Amino acid sequence: MEDARTIAAWITPGRELTAADEEGFRRLYEATSRPLWGYLQHASGRPDVADDLLQETYCKFLLRRAPAMDEAQTRSYLFRIATNLLHNRYRSRDDNAREEPAEYGADTDEDARLDVQEAMRHLKPRERELLWLAYVEGMSHAEIAAATGLGTMSIRILLYRARQKASEFLRPQRTKS
Amino acid sequence: MKQISCEHETDVIQALRSGEWTKELRLHLAECQDCSQALHLAEALHEEARRAKILCNPPDPHWILQRSRRIAREIAMRRMARLLAAMRILAAVYVVAATGWFLRGYAAFQYREVASAMHGAAREFALMGAIVAAVCVFAGLWPILRESSESGAR
Question: A112 and B47 in contact by Cβ < 8 A?
């Protein structure tokens, strides 16, 4: 992972961008962009929003001139920026309700997919974020706390509640209301 | 304190991610409702993540880097513009104060005495003017010098 000075140099006004700069950023981007996009798409429910917020996340990351960080911290920092951008969007547009999910094309397990998507539609944005960070990204409670700005102690309870809520929709024997 | 989730839940999620299941963990999973619920949900979300990867088409990093550089340049320009505006206000205040001082001196003395009065206060006035000018020059140079030293350090 690139150090803070190198990252700051990439966007210094008046400084020519070198091939090494481009390569450095490309490495960082390729290592982090897909998981970040998945998170944004899942939390917002819209691929187009995920595209926009992904670009915003990296622009903010570059412009903030963050202190020196290792790979895990950089990843956590990117998720933190993405989470803040999602919350800003929820606040400005008042679209907490998950929008209709995108079509992912042909699928062999359509029922399971619909179950997950229905479960996600019934969850609050914060709950969707927590579930994704914990179960897909495999983050610890401390890492989730760093990424979401919540207290470490609250994560355990919130995650438990979110899991209980989501699991109701995943049960095969559930009855639809 | 009431325990609200199983302490092995994190191990189960890690095992799902890595594919490395220990015998103990499998036995625990068979007995623990919390962990099997977590695993069921995690598997479903992993499937979503897999689909999302297929759908994901992130923009070119070169474009994002160029956009960030453009925004950084705009921020620097705005900062300099604010500084220049402040310096213009400072200069206007300086001109008004100097004019006031001159007119006051002119009104207080006869025309013949103005020259000598100004001569007496000239050193003090010139010193004050030089200090204000030095402050203005330093304030103008400061961001430029800071930017240069940051670039030099890299």
Answer: yes
